[in-house]
Amino acid sequence: MPNAETxxxxxxxxxxxxSILSAFDGDALAAIRNLLADADFxxxxxxxxxxxxxxxMARGWKPSYExxxxxxxx
Length: 74
Description:
This protein is mainly alpha-helical. The relative contact order is 0.07. It is extended, with a radius of gyration of 19 Å.
């Protein structure tokens, strides 16, 4: 389907899960370990940023360190 803004066809978005598995040559365990390490690193970065940020700058926003799963959409 042509893109209305550019008049060109848009390419389909790649599946992130397939891309990750491809990056690890199909080794699912290595991919999961890497994703867990990335999540841990990002959680630490969020904690550091929220510790350094003033309450006024964030206007009362507080980070959530764990993802909240919406049971109604699952």
